[in-house]
Automatic annotation (TrEMBL):
<keyword id="KW-0251">Elongation factor</keyword>
<dbReference type="InterPro" id="IPR014717">
    <property type="entry name" value="Transl_elong_EF1B/ribsomal_bS6"/>
</dbReference>
<feature type="region of interest" description="Disordered">
    <location>
        <begin position="88"/>
        <end position="110"/>
    </location>
</feature>
<feature type="domain" description="Translation elongation factor EF1B beta/delta subunit guanine nucleotide exchange">
    <location>
        <begin position="142"/>
        <end position="231"/>
    </location>
</feature>
<dbReference type="InterPro" id="IPR014038">
    <property type="entry name" value="EF1B_bsu/dsu_GNE"/>
</dbReference>
<dbReference type="InterPro" id="IPR036219">
    <property type="entry name" value="eEF-1beta-like_sf"/>
</dbReference>
<comment type="similarity">
    <text>Belongs to the EF-1-beta/EF-1-delta family.</text>
</comment>
<dbReference type="InterPro" id="IPR049720">
    <property type="entry name" value="EF1B_bsu/dsu"/>
</dbReference>
<dbReference type="GO" id="GO:0005853">
    <property type="term" value="C:eukaryotic translation elongation factor 1 complex"/>
</dbReference>
<dbReference type="InterPro" id="IPR001326">
    <property type="entry name" value="Transl_elong_EF1B_B/D_CS"/>
</dbReference>
<comment type="subunit">
    <text>EF-1 is composed of 4 subunits: alpha, beta (1B-alpha=beta'), delta (1B-beta), and gamma (1B-gamma).</text>
</comment>
<feature type="compositionally biased region" description="Acidic residues">
    <location>
        <begin position="101"/>
        <end position="110"/>
    </location>
</feature>
<dbReference type="InterPro" id="IPR036282">
    <property type="entry name" value="Glutathione-S-Trfase_C_sf"/>
</dbReference>
<keyword id="KW-0648">Protein biosynthesis</keyword>
<protein>
    <submittedName>
        <fullName>Elongation factor 1-delta</fullName>
    </submittedName>
</protein>
<dbReference type="GO" id="GO:0003746">
    <property type="term" value="F:translation elongation factor activity"/>
</dbReference>
<dbReference type="Pfam" id="PF00736">
    <property type="entry name" value="EF1_GNE"/>
</dbReference>
Length: 231
């Protein structure tokens, strides 16, 4: 089902987008898609930190684009109130011919049969090693997780609770954006995003062995998984 957003350069437009992302990890569907790229491009840059949900989504999509992790087709999204892209002027035919002639002249200077130097061989080996390492990294899947972390009572120091949670360090674990959500009777819960490398971190183990055990359980009563999405 297609969705639409209007004037993302205004506070009203950003507020609507932030509300839409409150219960969603992506613009549409359950994986990053072309809809996310459409909205990402429509924004002028990283949003203000006051838009917690947009900031969490923006940083996540920005990271995915860096590793080319957006592949879904999407359901269709439109963004109104954005300036259209400027048309690229086509050079005159004579200029194109002149440019082609210059390229031909440059090709004449290239020694296609020259022997590789030691520096060139070393550079090629380094590129191959980097490509191999990059391929290995992509083999390990990642997941985006949203957790509800609940305190013992209304007297629990929520700032110290969040510090205790973020102090949990593990290989393959990256804490993201967070916010406090009212529960009732003056009690608030911590809602926090995290990204994990599936082969290195188990969310169930993270909760049972770290979030609900000493010293974190001094502040944390329980912890629930709200959303879990493969990246």
């Amino acid at each position: 089902m297609a969705v639409a957003f209007y004037d993302l350069g205004s506070a009203a437009g950003l507020k609507k987008l932030d509300e839409s992302l409150l219960t969603r990890s992506y613009i549409t569907g359950y994986q990053a898609s072309k809809d996310d790229i459409t909205v990402y491009v429509a924004l002028s840059g990283p949003p203000s930190s006051c838009y917690v949900n947009i900031s969490r989504w923006y940083n996540h999509i920005d990271a995915l684009l860096r590793i080319s992790g957006v592949s879904g087709e999407g359901c269709g999204v439109t963004v109104e109130g954005c300036a259209p892209a400027e048309a690229v002027a086509t050079p005159p035919a004579e200029d194109s011919k002149a440019a082609a002639a210059e390229e031909d002249d440059d090709d004449d200077d290239v020694d296609l049969f020259g022997e590789e130097t030691e520096e060139e061989k070393k550079a090629a080996e380094e590129r191959a090693a980097a490509l191999k390492a990059s391929s290995k990294k992509k083999e390990s899947g990642k997941s985006s997780v949203l957790l509800d972390v609940k305190p013992w009572d209304d007297e629990t120091d929520m700032k110290k609770l969040e510090e205790a949670v973020r102090n949990i360090k593990m290989e393959g674990l990256l804490w993201g954006a967070s916010k406090l959500v009212p529960v009732g009777y003056g009690i608030k819960k911590l809602q926090i995003m995290l990204t994990i490398v599936d082969d290195l971190v188990s969310v169930d183990d993270l909760i049972e062995e770290h979030l609900t055990t000493e010293p974190t359980n001094e502040y944390v009563q329980s912890c629930d998984i709200v959303a879990f999405n493969k990246i």
